[in-house]
Amino acid sequence: MDQLCIVTTGGTIDKTYFDDRSDYQIGEPQIGQILSGIGVAFRFNVIPLMRKDSLHMDAADRMLLREVIERQSERHVLVTHGTDTMVETARALTGIAGKVIVLTGALNPARFQGSDAVFNIGCAVGAVQSLAEGVWIAMNGRVWAPSRVRKNREANRFEALP
To answer: Which domains does the chain have, with CATH numbers?
Structure first.
């Protein structure tokens, strides 16, 4: 892989806590800073498509994401996404020819100590380079086809469908 296309949609991975408002807001995409900070040995470009909690994404957002990915020249695409509807979005991206697309995110904001963001991004970068054409989800140290995974909200992790 010479060049990685990264499309960011928002989600917990990019959330920032504002003390004066006592709430979370989705901030600037963190993945570019993370990858630059660890000195990766490949080129990447970041397309900050939207800043949405995945619970607020709709069919039009998913269609826009699909269109943006289809227009990119890179074969390898990593999408940062909120975890609540990541599986739904992955399913909506199925069938894009000539691409390896991996969705990842975080259960805790990347800016927080102990966040799973860096680990999930690393897993996704390895996955996007080694998997066959198609759409995949990389979370919690595993890689799944979208048809075989779900988010277990009670356990706060992704797991194989029963």
So the answer is: 3-160 (3.40.50.1170)
